[in-house]
Specification:
The protein is α+β, with helices and mostly antiparallel strands. Helix content is about 20%, strand content about 40%. It is built from four helices and 16 strands. It has helices spanning about 5-10, 90-110, 140-150, 165, and strands at about 5, 15-20, 30, 30-35, 45-50, 55-65, 70-75, 85-90, 115-120, 125-130, 155-160, 180-185, 185-195, 195-205, 220-225, 230-235. The strands form four sheets. It has a six-stranded antiparallel β-barrel. Strands 9-10-16-15 form a four-stranded antiparallel β-sheet, covered by helices on one side. Strand 12 (about 180-185) and strand 13 form a beta hairpin. Helix 2 packs across helix 3 (about 140-150). The chain is globular, with a radius of gyration of 19 Å.
Length: about 240
């Protein structure tokens, strides 16, 4: 199992690791990964690893066999041998934008109170698909509500709940198609706001900013019909 350093400290930008394995496709498995693997609509992290004077760009990160996390090189290059000590360095600007967009989408799921059927994150914008028959007619109010939550600078924190507790609180699950992230039978939760007055609380395996103020100004984008009961809503980072 690859240790998930991105869960221990979302803001850590570089860290040492040891090469645990190389995949037949040319991927690199480390014993501990700073790099978040593609999942839940969030792209895999990119960056670099270095060892013995060599430098290897990482194009993306994906889930491998079991609980392994695989770094995918962006170009043909000699790979570090198994057992090599490397330094992993994130493309921090890209990761941080993913964090800002991901937290913004959690706020969007509050402003649009319908079940979520899908979503996607990029470094400039994100979108959620909602199980709702009609397009909202209060676009300006929605955008203002999003930015009000940003300006509140509310705390964003992680918590855990047992599967049994989640089953007893099914309203916390907003996504209809994605299985809640679990670890040894427990479910990871992302809370926006304080314990006794939270704005949003839902299962999530992704990376987030520490406070909503870090997201910055938001702009609502297109609202598209994607089926009889499905509406796609985009939100953009202004800077």
């Amino acid at each position: 199992m690859t240790g998930m350093l991105f869960r221990q400290d979302t803001y850590c930008r570089d860290a040492p690791a040891t090469v645990k394995a190389l995949t037949p496709e040319g991927g690199i498995v480390l014993d501990h990964s700073l790099f978040y693997p593609t999942g839940g609509g969030q792209p895999g992290d990119s960056g670099w690893i270095s060892w013995d004077g060599q430098h290897l760009p990482v194009a993306t990160t994906v889930k491998g066999e079991g609980s392994d996390i695989v770094l995918v090189p962006s170009e043909p290059h000699a790979l570090p041998p198994v057992g090599a000590h490397v330094t992993q360095t994130l493309d921090w600007d890209r990761r941080h934008k993913h964090m800002r967009v991901h937290t913004a989408l959690h706020l969007l799921s509050v402003v649009v109170p319908f079940a979520v059927t899908g979503g996607q994150i990029s470094a400039t914008h994100g979108r959620l698909d909602f199980d709702m028959p009609d397009a909202p007619d209060n676009r300006d109010e929605m955008e203002q509500a999003l930015n009000d939550y940003v300006q509140m600078d509310a705390r964003v924190s992680e918590g855990w709940m047992t599967v049994e507790e989640l089953k007893a609180n099914p309203h916390l699950i907003k996504t209809m198609a994605v299985k809640p992230p679990m670890n040894a039978g427990d479910v990871r939760l992302i809370r926006i706001g304080e314990d006794d007055s939270w704005i949003d609380l839902q299962p999530c395996g992704g990376t987030h900013v520490a406070r909503t103020g870090e997201i910055g100004a938001l702009r609502l984008g297109k609202m598209e019909k994607k089926g009889r009961m499905n509406r796609r809503v985009y939100v953009h980072l202004e800077t």
